[in-house]
Specification:
This protein is mainly beta. It has a domain of about 60 residues: Nuclear Transport Factor 2, Chain: A (Roll). The protein is about 10% helix and about 30% strand. A four-stranded antiparallel β-sheet has the order 2-3-4-5, with no helix packed on it. A two-stranded parallel ribbon has the order 1-6. The chain has a two-stranded antiparallel sheet with strand order 7-8. It is elongated, with a radius of gyration of 23 Å. The two termini are about 15 Å apart.
Length: about 150
Amino acid sequence: MVNIPKTKNTYCKNKECKKHTLHKVTQYKKGKDSLAAQGKRRYDRKQSGYGGQTKPVFHKKAKTTKKIVLRLQCQSCKHFSQRPIKRCKHFEIVLIESCAGKMVDEMIFSCVCCGGPGCCGDRGEGPVGGGIDNEPVNVVVVVVEPGSQRRKMW
């Protein structure tokens, strides 16, 4: 089972960035086949009429899994890049947990309870302002899907 975080700090190749930035991670999916493609038009023309199957149909499939391709979108310039990873039977994109066990907001990669870049338990700081009139906010959002287990990534 492979767990990938929803955000990843990696290099952006776009000419606007050319540096390490935060990227949103999704899984690549193949698009729908076009009916107007030349090969499809040729195949449909050959198949039409009487005569049965005209082209060979492949039956000797060897692989049981596909290689996973990650689709990375840069948060600063919105550029997309793709990164293949190894084969696996089970693949998930999950939230990241900080080392103190608190949930981390996946979009801004900061601790939900203190607003800092890491976990407030590491620095020994308490919650900081951010609510109405800069009052301390002590809310920690924990998202756990039914039937799934919370575990640390690293």
